[in-house]
């Protein structure tokens, strides 16, 4: 009986230590599938992934708004375009049957499909600025790629 009193606290302490160490190493505590639904390989539920995509779409819309000085009407027209783009990219990200190169190609294809839709909402001056932003981003990516090699 006395040994049981010593074993129970020791087991609890060891369990807490293991969980703390796993969490400290960057792991997420496992989400309960009962409480939060199915989780992805990153420990996110479908709802959390949707929220993250919405946040990225909102951030991109805000960035475009700032860079291109969009009107409220333009923002409203761009929102569904960016939402659709985000859904498609999320599907590519979640598709475990694709290689990283295939995913990169799919993302590029999605961007190329949405670009004309975005440009159709912009004024000629905004279209020119959008084109320049795209070129600057390409140059930054190429610079990073050169530094890797």
| Count of alpha and pi helical runs | 6
Radius of gyration: 23 Å
Largest sheet data:
none
Low-confidence stretches: 13-41
The total beta strand count reads 0
Order of helices and strands: HHHHHH
The assigned structural class equals mainly alpha
Tell me the span between the first and last alpha carbons. Answer: 65 Å
Proportion of beta-strand residues: under 5%
Principal-axis shape equals: globular
Mean pLDDT: 76
Q: Please bin the fraction of helical residues.
A: over 70%
Word description of this protein:
This protein is mainly α and 149 residues long. The protein has a domain of 96 residues. The protein is 81% helix and 0% strand. The chain contains six helices and no strands. Helix 3 packs across helix 4 and helix 4 runs antiparallel to helix 5. 6% of the residues are buried. About 19% of the residues have low confidence.
Protein traits:
149 residues, mainly alpha, 6 helices, 81% helix, 0% strand
In terms of topology, how is this protein built?
Blueprint: H1 2-24, H2 33-36, H3 46-68, H4 72-94, H5 100-121, H6 124-148
